[in-house]
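Design job #97: recover the sequence.
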């Protein structure tokens, strides 16, 4: 009896494969018919304008998915895209989200839902995306995760030219005193480049519900609705997985905007304590060019005394030893940047000792110059502010 195979032009590849295996099984010939392998990630390294790169990456993502009927639309939650290096949302990442959502919704196969807790209950999939500095341009990385299994079902990347890519951070990130990347953000960034068939980052997925509340709060902050933002950050921090650096940072920023400086200092102390425990405290101290003096504008540096006081107090309370590591932007020669970053680290150490003399024996200084730039543009403006930072790394105390 001949084996009948369904006509391939009526079925997408994966469906045709499954149907073929069913036909073979009916004839008792099932050798080699296992589940079809996951699709291969789509990678396009040709540099294009950002809008075109987003279009190519989105098309590559969608092409990896089995076809569905209009009645079987996938409900997808879009977790806002990030700058992979800084963990920040920028003007360019907002454009990524808008373009991806519009293209994914075309044809009716997807219903793109906002990143809210109620959406997670309805959605079958989660969409993540990053812009990553690479090869003299920006990589657009997208990944689609099946929420039930936590498996990445499609991943795609394309390259954008640097011209016209606006990486200025949104208000929350511009105002932030600290580097906001933590294990959750790192997990998001890893998920966006995870190949199909592999698991998305578990640490990120386990905290996704709290992340929706943090995102709501951050949107309110960016809209200058600080009192409402404060309430949402408090709500996030009350959740089991809400104790994240983004929520603690938002709590501090909201209190500052509301003029509640006593509460702001308490919030900053919590933020520093959390970061020390995670061995990930990077603070944006801005200095006058070529100097160890803090930036002259008191609107920028007015809170620095409080930051130093809380860093010193929390270091003393935790009884840890730390390296105070100075960093500089890429402007200037390597020798000048190395020396300047070391002088700035020493200046911060001295100021911490003024606040709590006991900590001086727990601190060592190091200057990294521009060797560990996060942004690396050398623009010396808000875009590369994170490059002009001082980090505090936990180390073993001397015997």
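Job complete. Output follows.
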């Amino acid at each position: 009896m001949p084996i009948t195979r369904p006509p391939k032009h009526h079925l997408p590849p994966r469906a045709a494969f499954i149907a073929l295996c069913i036909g073979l099984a009916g004839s008792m010939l099932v050798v080699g018919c296992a589940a079809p392998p996951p699709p291969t990630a789509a990678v396009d390294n040709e540099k294009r304008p950002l809008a075109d790169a987003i279009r190519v990456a989105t098309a590559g993502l969608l092409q990896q998915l089995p076809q569905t009927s209009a009645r079987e639309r996938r409900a997808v939650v879009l977790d806002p895209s990030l700058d992979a290096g800084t963990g920040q949302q920028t003007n360019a990442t907002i454009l990524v989200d808008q373009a991806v959502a519009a293209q994914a919704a075309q044809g009716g196969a997807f219903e793109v839902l906002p990143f809210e807790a109620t959406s997670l209950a309805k959605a079958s999939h989660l969409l993540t995306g990053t812009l990553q500095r690479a090869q003299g341009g920006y990589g657009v990385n997208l990944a689609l995760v099946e929420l039930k299994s936590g498996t990445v079902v499609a991943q795609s990347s394309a390259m954008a030219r640097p011209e016209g890519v606006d990486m200025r951070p949104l208000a929350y990130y511009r105002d932030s005193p600290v580097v906001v990347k933590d294990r959750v953000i790192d997990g998001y960034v890893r998920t966006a480049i995870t190949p199909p068939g592999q698991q998305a980052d578990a640490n990120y997925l386990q905290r996704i519900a709290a992340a929706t509340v943090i995102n709501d709060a951050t949107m309110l902050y960016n809209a200058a609705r600080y009192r409402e933002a404060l309430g949402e950050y408090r709500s996030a921090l009350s959740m089991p997985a809400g104790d994240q650096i983004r929520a603690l940072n938002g709590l501090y920023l909201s209190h500052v905007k509301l003029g509640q400086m006593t509460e702001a200092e308490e919030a900053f102390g919590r933020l520093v304590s959390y970061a020390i425990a995670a061995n990930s405290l990077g603070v944006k101290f801005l200095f006058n060019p070529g100097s160890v003096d803090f930036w002259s504008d008191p609107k920028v540096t007015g809170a620095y005394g409080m930051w130093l006081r809380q860093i010193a107090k929390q270091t003393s309370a935790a009884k840890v030893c730390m390296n105070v590591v100075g960093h500089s932007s890429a402007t200037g020669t390597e020798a000048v940047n190395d020396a300047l970053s070391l002088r700035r680290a020493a200046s911060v150490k001295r100021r911490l000792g003024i606040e709590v003399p006991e900590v001086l024996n727990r601190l060592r200084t190091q200057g990294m110059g521009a060797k560990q730039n996060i942004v690396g543009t050398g623009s010396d403006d808000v875009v590369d502010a994170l490059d002009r930072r001082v980090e505090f790394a936990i180390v073993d105390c001397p015997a």
